[in-house]
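Readers of this paper often ask what the protein records in our data store actually look like. Such a record has a labelled line for the sequence and another for the backbone structure tokens. Nothing more is needed to write down the fold, since each code stands for a local backbone conformation. The remainder of this section carries one protein's record, kept here as part of the documentation.
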Amino acid sequence: MNLDVRDIGGAPVIIGAGVAGLMTALYLAPEPVVLISSAPLGTEACSELAQGGLAASLGCDDGSDLHLADTLAVGDGLCDEAIARRVVEAAPKAVEHLERFGVTFDRAPDGAIRLGLEAAHSRRRIVHADGDATGRELIRALTAGVRRTASITLLENMQARRLIVDDGEIAGVLAVGCTGTVGLPTSRVVLATGGIGGLFRDTTNPLGSIGHGLALAASAGVELADLEFVQFHPTALDDPRRPMPLVSEAVRGEGAVLVDERGERFLADTPGGELAPRDVVARAIWHQLAAGHRVFLDARKSLGPRFGKRFPAIAQLCLEAGIDPCVQPIPVRPAAHYHMGGVGVDAAGRSSLKGLWACGEVACTGLHGANRLASNSLTEAVATAGFVAESVASASPGWRRRILSTFLPPRPDPSCIRPIVSKALGIVRDGETLREAATALLPIAAANQAASDPAVVALMIAIAALRREESRGAHYRSDFPGRNADTRSLRLTLGKAVEAAVALGWRAPIGST
């Protein structure tokens, strides 16, 4: 392997250029940093697709205690209350920071920031930008800010393939770009690589969101936490496009209802109705679909001709699918949307490996617990980017180690494991299918092939789901439908996951349907 070792002066390396990565880089300025983006900056980030907004207690009838209570209730007993409190208290300042970086939020006629309502929030506290295009506006403004900042070195169209570990701490990053393999010696690395939705056939995430950061961390021996908790957004537009267009929860916040093909509202007797926690709504829709029904989101009475003005991007997506949401119900189904699990980190974003931090969806901070409260994800990304930047800046750069040639895996391709993941790790799970998945994934994870890194991530999620013999939040086991009294977070290393999979024994691979 020809290795181009670049002298970056020991600068921290940020892997990922969504909101979390961009904000971390901007918070670190004017300290020199290197920002790695696998695509041209401003494209292919999960953040860009976010239609919802940021949850922040800005209303006169709201406060951080109320925001915290809603977060803990939805997290179903697994939130880290101290972390959750710190994040929700930082949320209003996070909105101010974004405005200073050039983000334009929607405002009411009196000039106050307009606040929306989403599921399981007790107050209107969702801050939006450009209606239903909040993520796009954040990425636009932050990308411009990064390009203006001289202290940030951008490496675009480059993918990190391995973390280099020496004597139990980070020593550098191996990345691949159009000119070949690049070694970046550093003792400080921040993972901000996003989620895992691309491991599923039905997803709202970019298809490249396949747990890349989790694979990097797992291969370096880092502890991952709460991997079994995958949130499925209840209302993805049910058409052939992948990723699936998202029909924001804010549409239900404006009064749209879920109905079957007969027009019957099947959530009428559910506490919270259409604005119940996402896991409740997603499972209700799953049961309708499993029974052979179709499901639609009907906004004709609540919004009608106002739909296009209130939700222009969603209206356009619907029109592209041949649906006019002003006069027709929108066909929807659940899709993999957000991962509450991730790299286990402390309050400063530090992982179990010295010199490695994680921020955004790739991290498990303890904020979300077993189920994410709507619009807390962008809030977490912006708030914790500040915590991480402060910690990285205070850490000694250390001495720079020389990166030697090392194993470089092939470019990841999850296509052959998507059927396994979709069958075993969906909305409703069971032990037998999880065991079959783990034994099918193990040899793929152990091989040196394109599917190996995605298989590592999927294997660890399957083992975590097997270990949690209960139903809690977004994790539902049909063979263990009740809750346990034990509310501990589960942490797992790749080594432990492999041991558990080997102990299951070899069986015939899971079917592809």
Remarks:
- Confidence is low (pLDDT under 50) at residues 507-513.
